[in-house]
Amino acid sequence: MSPAPPSPGADGAFLLLRVIFPHRSDRCMVTDWFVYTSGPGTPSLELLIQRPNPLDVVSRCAGVLSCGDHCLVVDPEWRFHDDDWMKFHLHIFSSKTKRWSNKVAKLGRGMEAFNPFFLPTKVLCVVRGGSMAWVDFRNSILLLDSVPGNCPEVSLIRLPPLMPINNVDSGGSPDGPCVDLVRDVTCRDGWFKFIEMGFPYLDPNDAQLNRGWEATMFKRKIRSDNYWQWEPCGTVDSASLLPADSCVACLFPEIFDCNEHKLALNNVVSSFPTLDLYCDDVVYMMTKIKADDPDGWIFAFNTENNRLEEISPFSQENCHLHRIYLQCDLSKHLMNKALDVLASRRSGGGNGSGTRRTGVEEERRWWFGDDEE
């Protein structure tokens, strides 16, 4: 089994997991999909049944959408027909009916500019129980409305052009350099938010590489009359950042100049900016001494006051440069459940001896297999 099952997405109480089995039944590789449900009731892990046609497999683009007491797993597929007309198909699994269904989405605004090389690497829940988005960091966002309804509609939102320093012309081909290293998109409170970082001081001919970076942020309303316009909403330069009091004890020589009493982020490799789901001013980045190091740190920056707020170390089993972290809506859901339990106990409705377990306690038992005394 793969050592770290990737999570393509989460929404509310539901988490979608992709697990790769390298060898099974004389086949080179098999991918299974699971839906983890944290409640209500006892948590469960359900294997996603195969689509009706045995030749059809769930793609890497699948995402999950909470519909209250159940969820939908949505797997999009775009096909160009003989008349060069595109149809946008949706393969949808319902955890309520345990069945797959198929829909064809109406082509909405901007779809005339759809790039057939569209390669999404992130799925977002835009409106719980209604809308989802697939993001190709190089090109655009596919916004899918009314997913559970009878007439879903898909529209295209173009991302801002690449920074000149990041703009390597690939002729619209997916073979161009991966831009996941320098871009991220999220959505919150009716807005899409976008960030891109670049390295304006990097000179490969300089023996002392300056890996300092600049990042620019944009935003736009999810529902906007202008599907192409983004508003700049801030910039941050690694050279202007200061350490917050909360992270002073975690500083180490490679990132802090003791003589100058300031951060020295130009000495480390920073990549994979990740916008916080719940706070507009927080950005996470993965940082290493060298790009091929297996160990590194996750930095949390506050872009409003230009502070390095938190530092968290990580260690991975291989040296590949890829995003090793994913902010997940399930964490927020479980935290809200825990707060509800605390509020109930403080108001006199807490668990006494011999009473029924709360959902959080059931969660703990499910994950760790232990029982509370």
TrEMBL record:
Domain named DUF1618: residues: 134-284
Family matches, as Pfam families: DUF1618
InterPro entries: DUF1618 (IPR011676)
Database matches in PANTHER family: EXPRESSED PROTEIN-RELATED, OS04G0388000 PROTEIN
Chain residue ranges for the region called Disordered: 346-373
Chain segments annotated as coiled-coil in the UniProt record: none
Ranges of Basic and acidic residues composition bias in the record: 358-373
Protein name stated in the entry: DUF1618 domain-containing protein
